[in-house]
Amino acid sequence: MLRSARLAIALSLTFALPAPAAEWSRGREAPAPRSEVGVAETGGKAYVVGDYNGATELLIYDLAADSWREGAAFPYHVHHPMTVATGGLVYVFGGYRDGWTATADVHAYDPGTDRWSRRSAMPGERAAGGAALLEGRIHIVGGSHSGRGNSTGHLVYDPEKDRWSEAAALPTPRDHLSVQAVAGKLVAAGGRIDGESNRNLAVTEVYDPGADAWIKAPDMPTARSGTASAVIDGEMVVLGGESRSQTYGAVEAFDPVRNAWRKLPDLPTPRHGFGAAVRDGHLFTLVGSPKPGGDRSGRVEILKP
Asked: What are the transmembrane regions (predicted)?
């Protein structure tokens, strides 16, 4: 009887233990610093494209091995592109070139051949927007034209047919926002108005492809722009960002099923203009600027939620 009581107490203590807290660790630094990049993951590797300060070499990070190598350089200097991987290819949409001239160009990188190829251009120039893969098509949402004025356009690209169409416009025009596909919908969070980081937004809007319509969701707790984002465990995680006077360490996760935000541990290195990728339950943050404006780094920090 005494033994049974002890066992019951031990079991109750075991099941009462709290879940392990999320924590950050450091990964291997990139071989060259970058900021204002596009990042996409395919085949267990993250591809870092573009750089505000002029670098064109493609940086490739092996998420499992925590190692870097270089790939074929992008055809020209670009910054603030939109980047998505699907079908084993990495697609790069628009961005700024020749300073702050937005482009409609689209390129695809094939890791198997280490080559870039051109695809059908977007119907209009676009930079600093959000991009995500939803139901086999790539959605380009928000962003700016040359001169950094905002676009409301919502473009949809079919990678198999190499064709473009349009969907319902984003209700709140903005750039430097985060966009991800979660639970069969698009979530657009944060950003800024007309490229001005002193006009940051917390607005969150959700797109239903079945209805071709956007609805308002609860605001992100921290208004910011220039964020990175990724999807893990059914939540969209938005990291970092900047304003005119600071960079942010905030990490906040949106659950579209509960229609609610929650806070996660802050980034060890607050920064903006960076990207994120997920593998085996770990969230990797890659490169970015630790200061507002045009700084850069090779920083890699990894979150285990």
From this structure: none
